[in-house]
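User: My instructor asked us to take a sequence, write out its structure as tokens, and then describe one feature of it. I'm not sure where to start. Here is the sequence I was given:
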Amino acid sequence: MIISNYHSVLDSLQGVITHRFSFAFLLASLIAVFSLFIKALTKRGAAATFIFAIIIFGFGGWKWTIPIVTFFLSSSLLTRIRMLKNKDVETYFEKTGARDEYQVIANGGVCFLLVIINEFFPSELFYLMLSQL
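Assistant: Let's start with the prediction itself. The structure tokens for your sequence are:
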């Protein structure tokens, strides 16, 4: 009886995890392709974003995903506005408006690490740390 219930719980848990990571894969694909399309990311930046998005959404769900996506969208929009106001601004910077994998890691790495740590050592403290960035 106990073993039967244990297997039932494991089966339902596996279904939830599979569903969550399947949706994470779809969401990450859409974000990466759209970001490439609008030239917000380089190819390598899109690849890093794809990996980060799967892990962040897969482990953290919408709660962890919305802050990092909001940051990405707002910073991309501000970059576009800057470029429209001053087209020569690109000549002063080594990097273009398209973010590469290093910028993705720099901007999303803390969230990526915190959501993984939170998966193994659940604590609201990790999400609070994210919200203070």
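For the description part of your assignment, you could build on this observation: Helices lie at 2-37, 43-85, 101-120, 124-131. Try explaining in your own words what that tells you about the chain.
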